[in-house]
Design brief:
- Helix content is 67%, strand content 9%.
- The protein is of the alpha+beta class and 398 residues long.
- The strands form 3 sheets. It has a 4-stranded antiparallel sheet. Strands 4-5 form a two-stranded antiparallel sheet.
- Strand 6 and strand 7 form a beta hairpin.
Length: 398
């Protein structure tokens, strides 16, 4: 016992002299233990698969996929590889997630502010919107918009025509496609105008903080944007025309060719994700605004600020610090909920890669691992971006 006690005292003395070892050594042991557990199960799975004659590895990604995909942002046909099929599914997932996040944010912010309106009718309508779309399961909403609304649209030869340039039928919605000349000049001008607006807004904000002088940033930003882009379009010979979809027939089947087509699966999924998630974002916005002390609003009103100015200059900037963390969770949920696309056959990464590709190749471990790692990467990326934005808007103590 004396020897053990003596060794423990030596160890404690050693850790006191080298405190970093006491911090990092337990974490090293945990990581080592996790590595041993993962290695054990991986080796066990590999041994069992080898015993059954199942090959492992990621070499199948270079093989020909031999299936078509209904909708893709890049060129794809059955002669392309599984790796390209994965890329198509990933881009489709990013597309519907990006559309959903954008519209959910806009709708949620508007409904959240309206929910607190002094107008009783507007407030009750916003409340009813939240209660209806929040309490119906997302999968049922996807089915509703897809099967009960979009699948009831007429056939191609009897399409609904809006303003003579939007054609809606059971195969999707067709709109004219922009055909650009010297598009690169326009892109450079657009990016330059955004940079100029950013620098101007940053300068105006610093000037307001130092002098209290408020610069009309919105109006000036519009002037900067349109001036720069007009100059680029005029002197850069940027041209724009429209390619209209045309109804054609092939062996008695009618279909629109040309223009831009949006498949009903994408519309139903983006619509459902936006409406469902916007209700939670609206509640986050309402909670953030209510979290601002009433005295600050009264103090702002006492110096002559209008209700709009109080909301824009006093309430919203402070409420963002409360709103951003829970809204980040809603962005993550929306991205993961996009995997419900498989229920209506929207070709996202789950349907294309973890569905069709897995069924054809039988590479369950490899494909499921890649799919899980993809969603993990997307979620971590969104979290890092929102944490950066939240830190940027946090209160800086002086």
């Amino acid at each position: 016992m004396k020897l053990l006690k003596k060794n423990i005292e030596k160890l404690n003395l050693f850790l006191e002299n080298y405190p970093k070892i006491g911090i990092y050594f337990p974490q090293f042991l945990i990581i080592l233990l996790l590595g041993i557990i993962i290695s054990y199960f991986s080796l066990n799975a590999s041994t069992n698969m080898a015993a059954r004659g199942i090959e492992t590895g990621f070499g199948f990604l270079a093989n020909k996929a031999s299936f078509d995909i209904q909708f893709s942002l890049i060129d794809f046909d059955s002669n392309d590889s599984y790796a390209r099929a994965y890329l198509v599914g990933l881009l489709n997932t990013l597309l519907v997630s990006g559309i959903g996040i954008f519209f959910a944010t806009v709708i949620g912010f508007f409904v959240g502010v309206t929910r607190l309106s002094s107008n009783i009718l507007a407030s009750k309508v916003a409340e009813a919107y939240i209660e209806i779309f929040r309490n119906i399961p997302l999968l049922l909403q996807i089915f509703f918009w897809y099967f009960a609304i979009l699948r009831l649209l007429p056939s191609s030869d009897n399409s609904l025509i809006l303003f003579n340039f939007v054609f809606a039928n059971i195969k999707g919605i067709y709109v004219p496609r922009f055909v650009w000349e010297n598009l690169n000049h326009f892109v450079y001008g657009f990016l330059f105008s955004i940079l100029a607006i950013y620098l101007f807004v940053s300068f105006s904000k610093k000037k307001q903080e130092k002098t209290g002088v408020q610069v009309p940033t919105f109006t000036t930003s519009l002037v900067i944007f349109f001036t720069i882009n007009f100059i680029v379009i005029y002197f850069g010979n940027v041209g724009l025309s429209l390619s209209y979809p045309v109804l054609e027939t092939n062996r008695g089947l009618y279909n629109y060719m040309g223009g831009v087509s949006v498949i009903p699966e994408l519309i139903a999924l983006a619509f459902s994700l936006s409406l469902y998630t916007s209700t939670f974002i609206a509640e986050c916005v309402r909670a953030g605004i209510l979290g601002i002390d009433k005295g600050q609003k009264e103090a702002a009103a006492s110096i002559g600020l209008s209700k709009g100015q109080i909301l824009k200059l006093i309430v919203i900037p402070q409420a963002l610090r409360i709103i951003i963390p829970p809204v980040t969770n809603q962005y993550l949920n929306l991205t993961k909920n996009s995997s419900l696309a498989a229920a209506i056959a929207y070709p996202d990464i789950v349907l294309v890669f973890a569905g069709t590709a897995l069924m054809q190749t039988g590479k369950a471990i490899e494909i499921v691992s890649i799919t899980m790692l993809t969603y993990l990467t997307l979620s971590v990326s969104i979290s890092l971006l929102m944490n950066w934005y939240n830190k940027k808007n946090s209160i800086v103590e002086r």
